[in-house]
Amino acid sequence: xxxxxxxQELIKVLGExxxxxxxxxxxxxxxxxxxxxxxxxxxxxxxxxxTEQVAExxxxxxxxxxxxxxxxxxxxxxxxxxxxxxxxxxxxxxxxKIIEVDQDNLTATVQPGVxxxxxxxxxxxxxxxxxxxxxxxxxxTMGGSLSECSGGLRGLKYGVTKHYIMGLQIVLANxxxxxxxxxxxxxxxxxxxxxxxxxxxxxxxxxxEIIVKLIPAPxxxxxxxxxxxxxxxxxxxxxxIIRNKIIPATLEIMDNVTIQTVENFVHAGLPMDAQAVLLxxxxxxxxxxxxxxxxxEQILKEEQAIEIKIAKNDQERDLIWLAxxxxxxxxxxKRPTTVLEDATVPRSKIPDMIKAIRKIAEKHNLQIAxxxxxxxxxxxxxxxxxxxxxxxxxxxxxxxDEIFKTAISLGGTLSGxxxxxxxxxxxxxxxxxxxxxxxxxxxxxxxxxxxxxxxGKIVRRx
Amino acid sequence: xxxxxxxQELIKVLGExxxxxxxxxxxxxxxxxxxxxxxxxxxxxxxxxxTEQVAExxxxxxxxxxxxxxxxxxxxxxxxxxxxxxxxxxxxxxxxKIIEVDQDNLTATVQPGVxxxxxxxxxxxxxxxxxxxxxxxxxxTMGGSLSECSGGLRGLKYGVTKHYIMGLQIVLANxxxxxxxxxxxxxxxxxxxxxxxxxxxxxxxxxxEIIVKLIPAPxxxxxxxxxxxxxxxxxxxxxxIIRNKIIPATLEIMDNVTIQTVENFVHAGLPMDAQAVLLxxxxxxxxxxxxxxxxxEQILKEEQAIEIKIAKNDQERDLIWLAxxxxxxxxxxKRPTTVLEDATVPRSKIPDMIKAIRKIAEKHNLQIAxxxxxxxxxxxxxxxxxxxxxxxxxxxxxxxDEIFKTAISLGGTLSGxxxxxxxxxxxxxxxxxxxxxxxxxxxxxxxxxxxxxxxGKIVRRx
Lengths: 462, 462
Hints:
2 copies of one chain form a homodimer.
Chain A: H1 4-14, E1 19-20, H2 23-27, E2 44-46, H3 51-64, E3 68-71, E4 88-91, E5 98-102, E6 107-110, H4 116-123, E7 128-129, H5 142-148, H6 155-158, E8 165-171, E9 177-181, H7 193-197, E10 206-213, E11 215-216, E12 220-228, H8 231-243, E13 250-255, H9 256-266, E14 276-284, H10 286-302, E15 307-310, H11 314-325, H12 327-332, E16 337-340, E17 343-344, H13 350-363, E18 367-373, E19 378-385, H14 390-409, H15 428-447
Parallel strand pairs in A: 2-4, 3-4
Antiparallel strand pairs in A: 1-2, 5-6, 6-10, 7-11, 8-9, 8-10, 12-14, 12-15, 13-14, 13-18, 16-19, 17-19, 18-19
InterPro entries (chains A, B): FAD-bd_oxidored_4_C, FAD-bd_PCMH, FAD-bd_PCMH-like_sf, FAD-bd_PCMH_sub2, FAD-linked_Oxase-like_C, FAD-linked_OxidoTrans_Type4, Oxid_FAD_bind_N, Vanillyl_alc_oxidase_C-sub2
Keywords (chains A, B): FAD, Flavoprotein, Oxidoreductase
Pfam families (chains A, B): FAD-oxidase_C (PF02913), FAD_binding_4 (PF01565)
């Protein structure tokens, strides 16, 4: 419970309408999109309308030693926005202006509460594109996706959020406001705090303004689907595409469990006994897209795809992607709880990882479907379970542990795009060792010595 | 002077042949490529042959409170490698192995002493490219260019060093060795230390292994030269190229002072009274290069270029680039001292910046030639002077101050690609404010509390 005086201070800064304390309101901020996580209600939810108000809130919090949890749309998948120690949830949704689209410098300046898709709807008018496209692009905010360094389907060719963040305005833990970076392509002035704060999950400072890089929108695209009776053959096709210097915008894979489930759900015409499906989209200049699509088809044939489809028009394209887009909803309806994991390995290790996941599923008697971004090595093993079944959940946790161990042993990483949050904090020393975790802790303490900004995420007090 | 016991410890770890203490040897490590900088001899120069040896040296230094200066080829331009407080210069040139070129994952793993060009000579055999190309590409090391986050001519289309660094092995100030990042395109595990250490100028840790991203080498390229009688017209041409969604690999500009000097030096056929020359190279797929070259020519005409040349073959291409490549040597032979500055503004502000530099030159009665990377807003105002002339050097310093103030006021930054080092440390609070500099200091102290790693660069003890 917050002291009455603190609440009064918050109301004085923000106005009564931007300070929520009713239990029904607090309840809706007690969780995020992460499955099987304990809910924690905050003491208050505040919605600032300016950077100055954010700074005031942070100063009030600092003075009274109250945790602050910045929050966008709450779509994150690692428990990163759950207010685990109570305190203030700082909803950034009122800060939702697109401040500028600068066509000469190919940048946009936005407030953190802007929805990713809203920005893209605006820049497309100028023939431009903001490439990062997490699955939640229509809901997630720019601030949230920056703080989680979201990825998505276009990572292979276009990179992820961090490759598009050029400048930031940041409120530090002491309430001071700094600006870093800007509209220049080149910038080596001081430590790269723009990069450090991207993906820091709101634990080092609060982002209040963002300059992003835009690119010319590709003028053409073509989608190709390849069906395989063997995961290794699909893996060889992936390698061959890259070795032929084709970098598709999207290169997705679905395993047999996913194919079967999706096919039952949407009837897209996928063979139920296929062991892997590759969904490929090349984009860019018209002539190049034509040339690359032919080459991809040829490679799929060489690598013994049992079926190949090339979309001839937008309708056929949508059909190809329907199965992939419906993968998660299809899987989610099979069992009450869907644990969507995020295991990432070098692209060449995709077949090894898929086979390892299959073995782990068998060993622990679990249903695990695997799909994801084969082109950038980012797989989503999805465990279909029921969080009320304690025995099964124990096995789920064991399986998750083994999946991460396997990913790291294959030269991969704990998280490709979902972040560490609460969910993966316990695994960090597997990847970084104690020395690495200690280095992160020292950095956290350098910028937020009292652990007031999104505490209990990424690193905990020693 | 180092204590004899410390020297003995270093010799024990590295062998006598890798520990230099002769005055003649130390002298050559007392400076770097930066003009008009005071020389400082180190007490010893050591050349480790492994990460373990680097860690041992750092531990010896930490135990005895001795500064350590990591150094590649010493080509940097901000005094970043000068051992200003004496101590140990850690030459990384023995660590010069290309460990792996991974064609499936499009990565290379290298030691920090590898020369950039050596890496490119190797990867080109596989049709691949490591895009960062500072002017010193044939001399500078991967470790040095990573630590300075070098840029170069291809920044507009391909970005700079930081966009290609995927993984690092780092020796921390306490001698502990950590690994961060890896071969996966996506990685959001923990704070992005890979990004933080890139461009940190060796002040946060010593890099001992680097995983870089490679891209397919472009299959074609075409060079175009446009001559203008007015800087603003050149500026409009730059804007029009970008608005037409053409992103050239290279888009360089030279001002009138540069043109005159270079023309006298190489006789490339540039009109002596031209106010600006644009040098443009488009690259990529053959069909696209053809299409874009035609479009660029058309734009140059529309924006009233008084002369346009399109290279029809490699020989003509070399001629177009001869003037640009010889700009610095041509300028350097005019006066004894060449102060090569690095002022970076948003691309749209290039004409304003060039005109401002011209006014500053007139005001302080100095010769300043300006050329640089117009496409990415990174200009190199080059002051032709004589460091023995104290009165003129005073005016040089005043002019440099005004150049940086102007760059920042135009939304630019202190340094696009040369780094802060010693040279620009005093200007940092103009860009970041005291709160920003303090944040950097806290980060430095979190990772190197005793200021032993390249001390006196970027941030100083308070």
